[in-house]
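**Entry details**
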Amino acid sequence: MPITAGIDVGTGAVKVAVFDVNGDTETCLAKRVERVRQRDPLKLAAQIYNDVVKAAGLARNDIAYCATTGEGESLDFHTGHFYSMTTHARGAIYLRPDSRAALDVGALHGRAIRLDERGKVLNYKMTSQCASGSGQFLENIARYLGIAQDEIGSLSRQSDNPEKVSGICAVLAETDVINMVSRGITAPNILKGIHESMADRLAKLLKTIGTVDGVIQMTGGLALDAGLVEAMKEATERAKITAPIESHPDAIFAGAFGAALWGAFRHEKLARMAEQARAA
């Protein structure tokens, strides 16, 4: 019955979760997310980790396994590290057990992951280095439009005539937006156009990983963007992807959840091996 922690150090935010794992029962005891905002992400991760462990009513030595993902491998107190693709797949299963794909949309890239019922990765594909399908790009556009990041999704859904932007290059897309503003295009129509462009690229990504026999679970920070979620539902329909695509209120924690749960699995496996060695 290990208590494990997962720390996901991303470009835009740090996410931490603590779990109590007892057989098939997986209980999240505490969790927290905080945007990096020009702070040192590793110092921020250490601070949040201490706060989350305390919020769970625990001490650090109560944590049997502290697993990191993302850029968290440099934390000097972690027990083990897992690739983010692996943790998002496992996190998707925790969020929705009938997930058979995860669409991870973070600050720097998008990633489609096909997985099995255990959260094992079967296939995956990432976007190119261009940032026009990323959270960072959307944040830059919102800043230019004078809009808070949390307003993007709701404003996008108010669009009545979305204006298409370049889906190829972030620089060209930002130039498009500058031209749109000068032509008097409203912020909702600009944002909806950006969401549609991003969604079309992400839908093409999903097509490359093969048929998904279950739900596509969105993960990462942009899974909480209601405008992008709506655009993804429309884009997958246009792309004739039959698997339903869904989000979840805790989608941003998928990497941290998956790290904690894989950490519990590894901890129990190591304990069994140690017991077998003692018995030999």
Remarks:
- Helices lie at 41-55, 84-95, 135-145, 152-156, 170-182, 187-208, 226-238, 254-279.
- The chain is about 40% helix and 20% strand.
